[in-house]
Structure formats: C-alpha cells, structure tokens
Amino acid sequence: MIKKIFGTGDRPRLNVYRSLKNIYAQIIDDEKRHVLVSASSLSGELKDKIQKKPKTECAKDVGILLAKKALQKDIKKVVFDRGGRKYHGRLKALAEGARSVGLVF
To answer: pTM, whole model, 2 decimals?
Structure first.
C-alpha cells in the first residue's frame, strides 16, 4: 500500500525529483495547489557555482538554496516527499543541505 504525502499551509510538502543529470526540488501547498518555492541544479543562482562538482555536492547546494528561499518566505517546517525513492545519495545530500540552513522535516 502506498501512502500519499499531503502538504498543508502550515506544513507544505518538499517534493524532490532527480533525473540522471539534475535534481529538482519544490515546496508545494497541496491545499491551494500552489508551488511556494523551487530550486534546481539548473537554477541561475547555482549554475556557475556547481560546474564540475559531483552530483551529490550539487544536490546539497540545491537543498541549501531551497531552504534559504523558504526561510525568506517564513516557511520553517515541511513534509519530505522523496517520491518513493530510497533515502540515500543525492536525496540525502539535498535533505541534509536544507536542514543545515534551518528547515525542519
């Protein structure tokens, strides 16, 4: 049985998608069906910083950028939606980067 993760206004959902080369993260309010904050390894803020870095370090930088943007919008607590993937590698690096800035899962 698959459990659906649902984000509210008080605790939005942090959705993570990873492709072979890039990683994308969004903070979503599912009640309003609205994306509050997003970041990816293709973001303009990170493009120069993450060139020639390993994918796990890029994922950590994406997590840090996402958490900074979230804290600017007064989002401190989120529900982590890993998309059915195991919690290791790039997903773990992104989560640890977001936690290091102050985002609470």
So the answer is: 0.91
Q: How confident is the model at residue 2 (pLDDT cuts 50, 70, 90)?
A: low
From CA 90, how far away is CA 54, in angstroms rounded? 10
Does the structure show a pLDDT above 90 at 84?
Answer: no
Residue 69 CB coordination number (10 Å): 18
- What number does CATH give the domain 13-101? 3.30.420.100
Domain definitions of the chain by residue range: 13-101
Instruction: Look at residue 31 in the predicted model and tell me its pLDDT.
Output: 92
The burial of 38, by beta-carbon neighbours within 10 Å (0-12 exposed, 13-18 middle, 19 or more buried), is given as: middle
DSSP annotation of 77 reads B
